[in-house]
Structures are given as structure tokens and as C-alpha cells.
Amino acid sequence: MPRPVRISVIGAGSGVFSLGLVKDICLTPNLNGSEISFMDIDADRLEFVQKLATRYAHELGADLRFEKTLDRAASLQDADFVINTAYPLGHHHARRMRELTERHGYYYGAVDLGDYYELELMMDVARDMERICPHAWLIQSGNPVFDGCTLMTRETNLKICGLCHGHYGYLEICRVLGLDPARVTWEAPGLNHCIWLTQFLYDGQDAYPLLDDWIETKGEEYWRTHVAERTHDIQMSRGAIHQYKMYGLMPIGDTPRTSTNTSSWWYHTDLATKKHWFGEPFGGPDTEIARPFYVTNLEKRLHQMQEVANDPKAKVTDIFGTTKTREQQVPIIDALTNNVEGRFQVNVPNRGRIEGLPDDVVVEGQAIIDATGIHPIKPTQLPRKIMLEQVYPRWLEMERNLEAYRSGDLSMLLWTALTNHQTRTYEQAVAVIQDLLAMPGHEELRAYFKGFDGTGARWNR
């Protein structure tokens, strides 16, 4: 018998995500009778999200109840699942940080202050869950998934699953090569934002030769003529293929854009370089052209949703459709609740799956999920070169981020700037960290981080 559940959505004011979640729940009959609690600190957004969800469910005849609250504890009460998609400081604050670092000679936010606010919010939610709904599943859907899920797994006894969209990059490879995805078998293990196509079969045969033939016969024409309509359209870019040629496996999803100090900084030195590697017109998703375009489209979508919510004559299903999204949250909830077994790409503790990484580091890969839980599948092992040059540096970057968060050691923030490839002098690194700390909105972070400031003095004694 299908069982209804209570789902708490933290950061539900992210209306585009919330509407997709509502669509998937409404189109999953097994979850009829369920209750969804929308929680956010923005009362206006909560209002229109709840309105839209209620009307959408009514039009489809789905038996669902939606509540809204500014109180996180109230939302978590009796929850079976918690979906955390919150982004505490927001896109506009991130833009102000990038503009500040540019004044210090760093292109497009090459230096930041780590993920203090994001990790603090994740831990606040996790601690509340331990107190209020300790048996609920936490589905972490907001970044940094890798760092946050590893931290929460180490610090709590919660059941945690991290999700990301990046693995769907394999579908773009299929589209460009003209392959039917239903006939493709794939596997892309690694760390979140650092996953590699270790298995790529078409009708059971190795499909990498098909990719090689496309590169040889069509690649240059594609890179010369392709104009991206989406900021994240980089899966078949020159940069992604260059990484494939370097490492012998195709990087998937967000992997080609990863810009750690040691792994791929040379793709990201300036806009012209980014356009060369990731194409016109954006140069990938992380440029002064792409990010404003992306945020503006998000805001347009939110505005459209708000208009529909406030127009009682509008038919929500006509405007937003009745097709499920590709998001995994609802299918995973259905699998865990109603034993609808499926194969999913998830971020869970390693426990021996990827050799060379500790058991408590959260890794990304495929798993079978059913009512008995999440059962990770041991993947094809990544080549040693990828481990040494990509996976290990990404892992150590995460560990430094978590140690800085735990310790409040100011010199760790300074060290991150000092080791950046765009840093030319010691004084430049000190100045950018000082100015970032002084920004409005960083008061809590500024009070927390203490220690050596790089000048012989001490900040925040």
C-alpha cells in the first residue's frame, strides 16, 4: 500500500525548484495524501509558492496538502524527508564579492572566504533534525553538496543523501552524437563536480570510439559554429574535450568548469580564454556575462510564477506543463517509502567504493534505492592520473574548507588567497581578504575567524 509522507522543504522560496518539486509529487500517485511544508525566511515568496502549489495540485486532482512557515522547527516537526535547497547569501551578494575581488586584480571571484554561511546553515538544519525528526532522511540539494554532506555525515547520525544535476551531462553527449539514451549504459563516479565517464556503452558496445570520431570529423566545426543558449552548455565544449584528451575519460556535468588552484586554472584566466575553451556567447557559466544572464532568467521565472499565482483565472497546468522534471528528489522519496526500486546518482559516504579515499568522505556515484535504503554500486576505478591530478586535489580542498570552518583560523583564509594562481604578491592576498571580511553581510563570519592576518597584527582579537 502506498504511504503518504511529510516533506519539509527548507529554502522553499527558491520558487523554480519548489514548483518542479510540486510537479513531481503531484505526478507521483504513490504520494497522494502527503503533506509538504514550505519553509523560508521570505514571507512573500512563501505566499506565492504555496498558492501555486495548491492550485497546481487541485488542477491535477492530487490529494496533497501544502503549508508555509517562517519557523524551521515547525516545518521539521514529524517530517519523514527534509529537502534543503537554501542558499543563505544569494546571487546578488556573490556578485558584489566578485566585483570586490576584481578591484584587487582577481578575475571573476578567484578568491572567496570559503563556505562558512552555507556550512553553518546546513549544520543548523542537521542539528534541528537530530532534535526534532532524527529518523527523517535529509536530501541535501543546495551547494556545496560535497563539503556539506561530508561535514554533516561526520558530525551527525542522520541519514543523508546529496543530489546534483551534473551527471545528466551524459545526455548532452548522446544528443550531440545522435545516440538514443535508452540504449546507453553509463557510469560517472568521483566527487561532486568532479565525476568522470568510466563506462559509456551503446547497445553494449564501447561508445568512446563514436565520441572520438565526432571529435575528429565534426569537433572543430561544432566549436566554431555552436552558440550556446544556456549558460551551462559546456559538456561538448573544447574545454571538456581537452580534458578528455588529457585524462582519457570524459569529464561530466560541472567537472569541466571546476577551477581549483591545481586542477584547471588555465581555462579560467579571463573572458577571452573562457570563450575559447567553453564557447560563445558566455564562455561557460562562470563569467561576468553568464552569471547575470542566469540570475536574470531566474528572476523572470519567479516573476512569471508570482503573476500566475496572483491571477485566479490562469490555469497553472497550461502554463507550467504536466511533465515530470529530471530531478531525483521525488523518485528517491517514492523508492524509500513505497519500495519503487530505482537506480540513481547520489552523494553518500565512500565506504570503500573509490579506492584511495577515506570511508567518511562523501563520493558521487550510482546506487540502487528501495525501501531498505540506499545501496551504492562499486564503480569502475578511476585511473591513477585522474586521482592524483583531479580527485585528490578536490578532496584536500574540501578538507581545508571544513578545517577552516571548524577552527575559525583566519590564516587558512589567507592561505587560500596566497596559493591562488592569480595572486602576484603577498600584499595583494592580504588586502583582498581584509576587504572581503569587511563587506556588509559578513559580520558573523568576521567575528568568528580570528588569528594571524598576514601583516604581523591580529584581526578580531
Give the key terms.
LDH C-terminal domain-like; 3-stranded antiparallel sheet; 18 helices; 461 residues; 6-stranded parallel sheet; 17 strands; single chain; alpha/beta; 3 domains
| Total strands | 17
Low-confidence stretches: none
Please name the fourth-level CATH homologous superfamily of the largest domain.
AglA-like glucosidase
> Remind me, CATH topology of the largest domain?
LDH C-terminal domain-like
Could you give the order of strands across the largest sheet? Answer: 3-2-1-4-5-6
Q: How many domains comprise the coordinates?
A: 3
User: What radius of gyration results from the CA coordinates?
Assistant: 22 Å
What's the layout of helices and strands?
Layout: E1 6-10, H1 15-26, E2 35-39, H2 43-60, E3 65-69, H3 72-76, E4 81-84, H4 91-103, H5 116-132, E5 137-140, H6 145-155, E6 159-162, H7 169-177, E7 184-187, E8 190-191, E9 194-196, E10 199-202, E11 205-206, H8 208-217, H9 219-225, H10 238-247, E12 251-252, H11 271-278, H12 290-309, H13 316-320, H14 329-338, E13 342-349, E14 362-370, E15 373-376, H15 384-407, H16 410-418, H17 426-437, H18 443-448, E16 451-452, E17 458-459
Overview of the structural elements:
This protein has 461 residues and is an alpha/beta fold. It has three domains: 190 residues, LDH C-terminal domain-like, CATH 3.90.1820; 119 residues, no CATH class; 54 residues, no CATH class. The protein is 45% helix and 15% strand. It is built from 18 helices and 17 strands. The strands form five sheets. It has a six-stranded parallel sheet, with helices on both faces. A three-stranded antiparallel sheet has the order 7-10-11, covered by helices on one side. Strand 2, helix 2 and strand 3 form a beta-alpha-beta unit. Helix 16 packs across helix 17. The longest helix is centred in the C-terminal third of the chain and has 24 residues. The mean pLDDT is 95.
